[in-house]
Design a protein that fits this description.
Number of helices: 3
CATH topology: Nucleotidyltransferase, domain 5
CATH superfamily: Dinitrogenase iron-molybdenum cofactor biosynthesis domain
Number of strands: 5
Order of helices and strands: EEEHEHEH
Strand order of the largest sheet: 3-2-1-4-5
Structural class: alpha/beta
Distance between the termini: 25 Å
Strand content: 15-25%
Helix content: 10-25%
Largest sheet: 5 strands, mixed
Low-confidence stretches: none
CATH architecture: 2-Layer Sandwich
Radius of gyration: 13 Å
Mean pLDDT: 83
């Protein structure tokens, strides 16, 4: 499974998870089968509120799931329309959230759980 996790820096599996999808400076792209992690700068980091285009932000990278602390309604709707699941990240490192997903400890986020505006969610 190919995962995308917004992170603050490019520090391998020790990268700290970033709180919000759209404003993250970097995305970690982790393949659970190979264990390989790559990093991609967020091409849409400075977008207007409600104007996040997830696939543009990911630079067209194909992913199966997003693990994130917070994400807007439109972004989650667009991701779900493409068949991409979104899971709630716990605080910690990339290694922590990958292990959490593998262990079934992360909840899937629905549009009802999404942030309504930047800085306004509980994450």
């Amino acid at each position: 499974m190919k995962l995308c996790i917004p992170v603050a820096t490019k520090n391998g599996l020790d990268s700290e998870v970033y709180g919000h999808f759209g404003s993250a400076p970097v995305f970690a792209l982790h393949d659970t089968e190979s264990g390989i992690t790559e990093f991609s700068d967020n091409a849409s980091q400075h977008h207007a509120q409600g104007a996040c285009h997830p696939m543009q932000a990911l630079g067209g990278q194909a992913v199966d799931a997003i693990i994130v602390g917070g994400i807007g309604v439109r972004a989650i709707s667009r991701l779900n329309e493409m068949g991409i699941k979104v899971y709630r990240a716990t605080q910690g490192t990339l290694k922590d959230v990958v292990a959490g997903l593998a262990g079934g400890a992360l909840d899937e986020i629905t549009v009802d759980d999404a942030c309504s505006h930047h800085g306004g969610c509980d994450h």
